Every structure is written in C-alpha cells, then in structure tokens.
Amino acid sequence: MGRIEIKEMCKEFVERRGAPRVINSDPDLHKGGHLLVLDRISLNFDDGELVCLLGPSGCGKTTLVRIIAGFETPSAGSVLIDEKPVAGPSSDNIFVFQHNGLLPWMTVWENVRLGLRHMRDRKEMATRIREYLDVVNLTGFEAHYPHHLSGGMQRRAELARALVVNPEVLFMDEPFAGLDFLTRLKMREEIINMHEFIHKTILFITHDIEEALEMADRVVVFSDRPAQVRMNLKLDFPHPRDFTKDTALEDIRRSVYTELGVHYAL
Ligand SMILES: Nc1ncnc2c1ncn2[C@@H]1O[C@H](COP(=O)(O)OP(=O)(O)OP(=O)(O)O)[C@@H](O)[C@H]1O
Ligand SMILES: [Mg+2]
Predict the structure, then answer these.
(1) Residues near 244 by beta carbon (within 8 Å), at least 6 away in sequence
(2) Where does the source fall among the domains of life (predicted)?
(3) Among 137, 162, 202, 258, fewest CB within 10 Å belongs to which?
(4) Distance from the Cα of residue 187 to its chain's centroid
C-alpha cells in the first residue's frame, strides 16, 4: 500500500488580514496578498515507487509534499493515498524524514524506539529496532548519543527511526543537505538498497539531478513557481546506473538539465 493520486491540485497562499508579518516570508505575498504556488498538478505514484522531485528553488516542492503528508490543505483538487482522501497528518501511514531530527539526549536505540512507543510487546519492539539498525549499518552503535556519530551516521540513524515505523509513504525533503560529497554518494546507495529491501513509496526532494536519476523509479521535474509538471519520467534502468555507459540515461540527464535551464553542465 502507498499509492498516491494527485488530481488537478492547486495551492495558493493568502495573506490573512491582521496577521503578523513574518520576517523572511515571501515578499510577493505582501504585494498582492495571493501567491499561487502549485498550478493544477496531476500525478500518480505507484505503490512502492521511489519518486524524486526536482525543480527550481522556491517552486513549491516542499509545499506539494506537505500537502500530500496532510500538513497543508490544497486550495483546489484532491490528494488520495490508497484511494482515501488525505485529511490531516497521520502517523500510521506516513513518516516525514527530517534531518537533525534526532533527540540529542537520547541514545541511537532510544531515538529509534521513539517511533514504536505505542508498541506493547517489548521483545518484538527490540527485534524491530535491531533489524532496522542493521539495515542502516549501525549495529554496535546502539548506546551512542547523536553527537558521538558522524553526520552520515546521524542520517542513517534518522533513517532507521523512520523505517522502524513501517510507514506506507516516506517523505524525504532534501535529507542529504549538508553532507559531504562522499557521504552523500554512500547514502544514495543505502537508500537504493534499503528501498529494494522494504519497497515502500518514497517521495524524495533533491536539487541534485544525478542523484535523482541514479536513485529514482520516477523523476518529476517542476517549472518555476507556480509549479507545473514539466517532466514525468518512469526510469526502468537497473541499479547501479552509469551515465557514461547508458546512452538512454545520459540523454535523459541532458534533457533534465535543459528543462531546468542549465546548459553549461552538459
Ligand atoms: N506557509 C506559507 N505561507 C506563505 N507562503 C509560503 C508558505 N510556505 C511556502 N510559501 C511560499 O511558497 C513558495 C514555494 O515554497 P516551497 O518551500 O514549497 O519551495 P521549494 O520548491 O521547496 O523550494 P526549495 O527548493 O528552496 O526548498 C515560496 O515562494 C514560499 O515563500
Ligand atoms: Mg523545499
């Protein structure tokens, strides 16, 4: 389960009269009072699909994911998860992966256990935690506190914390931001392996075109704000993917760069 259907969805932010002006909020919002962010988005994601969302900064990717996760309501159109309309955030079937989401006063084990706090069976709980710490290669670090882990290990612990909940859909908004290049490459690999293992629907926002094309089953490219779907590509290439050997993949890479208005990187 984890099929997502988005139909003709729009999102407009409206400045409320009398609402305090937030520093750093969008200046366009104060000019006209209305800001169209998502413009008739229609998309279908299959159960178990790893979808990467690409688009210019500020186009509306986070807003789209927040609506699917139930944190925002659309201004028009609909979002269905497993044929049920999304009506607010639900901890049963979704999990939003945030970086720096670990609680610093808890060990890795305790942080991962947070997602299972409603579980009664302690033995089963311990088995689940052990299993997912193993998936992310953190066996042996159960008693460590977050500040005793490297950046990459912290992300892996966060990932274990998300996976242990066994969500139908996993939302990841630039989860590798701030990681060094090598760690990022390794995390990419881990996500691909992990996805083959758990086969959950994952919505993954990134600014990295190669990252998206290496990982995803589907890549969606949005226009500038208001975001419209510019490309919706199903990628049936086996992993690991190599742009230098696969000309079809390389052609797609070039077309995505072109769509995003970048020519020098070709
Ligand atoms: N709660 C809100 N109220 C008003 N405007 C908002 C709100 N949330 C987002 N926006 C505006 O909507 C637009 C899209 O923002 P969003 O965060 O979805 O972009 P993004 O594609 O995720 O950008 P980035 O790649 O930089 O993270 C921006 O102009 C932003 O200022
Ligand atoms: Mg964003």
Answers:
(1) 250
(2) Bacteria
(3) 258
(4) 14
Q: Is residue 225 part of a domain?
A: yes
Number of compact structural domains in the chain: 1
Distance 66 CA to ligand 1 centre (A): 10
pTM of structure: 0.89
| CATH assignment at residue 248 | 3.40.50.300
The residue assigned the tokens 């589907």 is 218
**199 Cα–ligand 1 center, Å:** 29
State which residues form the domain around 252.
1-63+79-93+168-173+199-266
Residue nearest to atom 28 of ligand 1 (CA): 58
Q: Which mutation among 10, 28, 35 tests ligand 1's pocket best, with the greatest number of atoms within 8 A of CB?
A: 35
Does residue 243 belong to any structural domain of this protein?
Answer: yes
Within 6 A (CB) of ligand 1 lie: 13, 25-26, 29, 35, 37, 55, 57-63, 225
